[in-house]
Design brief:
Layout (H helix, E strand, L loop, with lengths): L1 H4 L9 E2 L4 E2 L15 H12 L5 E5 L4 E4 L4 H7 L11 H11 L3 E5 L2 E10 L4 E8 L1 H12 L4 E4 L5 E4 L4 H6 L10 H12 L6 E5 L2 E10 L4 E8 L1 H20 L2 H8 L6 E14 L2 H6 L3 H21 L3 E6 L2 E6 L8 H17 L2 H6 L3 E15 L5 E5 L1 H11 L6 E3 L1 H7 L3 E11 L3 E11 L1 H19 L1
Parallel strand pairs: 16-18
Antiparallel strand pairs: 1-2, 3-4, 3-7, 5-6, 6-7, 8-9, 8-12, 10-11, 11-12, 13-15, 13-16, 14-15, 16-17, 18-20, 19-20
Helix pairs in contact: 11-12
């Protein structure tokens, strides 16, 4: 008996687990701490054979006792066979894995296995359980080679991995591997994942702008987040908007579109437009009494009011020349009510400028002249180009301003005819116009309330329709 000889009982001695029966002619199991029948042993050995993952058994002495069919590649890499000793350093790795509970990696050609050792002292051997982690290793390797940020989150919003390229992004959001990202950002990312929405999430981090695409990886229980630095693209977008704004400051939008499409010569005839000229009264004396920065600041405030009124009434600013401002209606908008819109702007001008403190203190007033009729318009220049308008209609509109009265809006007969049903006008009588002789002119006073409301409603309806 083992207890009598002092030799530890080894219930597997003399037994080949692949055969499922004792090699001993004695059908009775040997006595020891645990006695199993042949059928029980055969059943224990049968289960690993059905396991799709590698399963091996090594005796405490280092002999390869068993290997299932799925472990053939591992056995070949080990350089052993069932019944033979396990060579070093394999045996050392096996024993360390069984002791620490941590698996060790085994490369087998293009594949990689993790092998976990489990001590089974009741049977006097170590079970080895192998897992093919080739795909998981590949998933882990690719982000390290990605020049764009890639990091992984668990479902608590904790960063479990970040590739080298994501250092600036991760640090910029105040986090690090092992820490949790800000709750609102995690909520946004998780919402996209849970809804299977492919839209990206934009974030600012470390003075740069990123878009983040979260992708669920359910096989591994984490969320991959793919980042793209769009700082340069955002800056280009900003510069494009700025260039567009500057372009539209000197050109009507339809004309700017034509230039962008490559038209080299832009010249058009318009049969019916309305022109307004406005000029600051006594500007020469005013400019001599102010410092340059004060003068420019006042002009900027005043002409900003002009710009706002032009936009409100659906008109186009043609240009400013010193203290003069030129506006046209009907150039890009074919609607026939451009005389009313220009007149409405002129009526509102005095009150809006008077609301500027500096303009009120300095007593700034305008002479305003309006005329309507046919013109020719086009773009002049290739580098410092300008959109300008020519024709007799332009000349007469300028004369309406220059022969006008400070603080009043003087209009031609053509304008009076178009406005008389909608505005109150006062006849000034005959005025000598250079190159024209004496012509009748009128002062525009105010809009007739009931007519004006209908006209404004029509313009507002067109504006709404154009923007929708």
């Amino acid at each position: 008996m083992p207890g009598e000889t002092g030799v530890p009982a080894r219930p597997w001695a003399g037994y080949d687990p692949r055969m499922g029966a004792s090699r001993s002619p004695d059908p009775q199991p040997r006595p020891g701490p645990l006695a199993l029948t042949g059928e029980q042993i055969a059943a224990i050995s049968r289960f690993p054979d059905q396991n799709p993952n590698p399963v091996l058994r090594v005796t405490v002495g280092g002999q390869l006792l068993y290997a299932n069919t799925s472990s053939a590649a591992l056995v070949e890499a080990m350089g052993a066979h069932v019944g033979a000793p396990v060579p070093e350093p394999w045996l050392g790795s096996i024993r360390e894995a069984a002791k620490s509970g941590e698996p060790f990696e085994v490369p087998v050609g293009a594949r990689t296995f993790e092998v976990l050792g489990v001590d089974v002292p009741e049977f006097g051997f170590l079970n080895l359980y192998g897992t093919d982690v080739t795909a998981r290793k590949a998933v882990g390797r690719f982000p390290d080679q990605n020049p764009n940020p890639v990091f992984r989150l668990d479902w608590d919003g904790r960063i479990v991995y970040a590739n080298p390229a994501s250092g600036g992004l991760i640090g910029g959001i105040g986090c690090a591997v092992g820490g949790s990202i800000e709750a609102r950002l995690w909520d946004r990312l998780r919402a996209h994942v849970e809804s299977a929405d492919s839209a990206v999430v934009e974030v600012e981090a470390g003075g740069r702008t990123y878009v983040l695409l979260p992708v669920d990886v359910p096989e591994f229980g984490f969320v991959n987040v793919y980042g793209t630095d769009i700082t340069a693209a955002k800056e280009l977008e900003r510069l494009h908007r700025e260039n567009e704004r500057l372009l539209l400051n000197i050109l009507p939008e339809p004309i700017a579109d034509r230039l962008r499409r490559g038209e080299r010569l832009i010249a058009d005839r318009f049969d019916d437009v309305t022109l307004l000229f406005a000029d600051i009264v006594g500007f020469t004396e005013l400019s001599s009494s102010l410092r340059p920065d004060e003068l420019v600041a006042v002009l900027n405030e005043v002409f900003t009011v002009f710009d706002d009124l032009v936009e409100e009434h659906g008109l186009e600013k043609v240009k400013t020349i010193g203290d003069a401002y030129m506006v046209v209606g009907g150039l890009t908008d074919p609607s026939p009510d451009h005389p009313e819109r220009v007149a409405r702007m002129a009526v509102a001008l005095a009150a809006r400028v008077a609301a500027i403190d500096a303009a009120s203190v300095l007593g700034i007033r305008f002479r305003v002249g309006i005329n309507c009729g046919p013109v020719v318009a086009g773009v002049i220049g290739t580098k410092k180009f300008i959109y300008d308008i020519w024709g007799d209609t332009v000349n007469l509109a300028s004369r309406m301003e220059s022969t006008g009265v400070p603080g009043r809006v003087q209009v031609s007969a053509a304008v009076e005819e178009r406005l008389r049903a909608r505005f109150r006008l006062a006849s000034r009588g005959l005025v000598e116009i250079k190159g024209k002789g004496f012509l009748p002119t009128w002062f525009l006073e105010e809009e007739t309330p009931h007519q004006g409301s209908r006209s404004r409603s029509a313009h507002q309806a067109r504006t709404t329709a154009a923007s929708s």
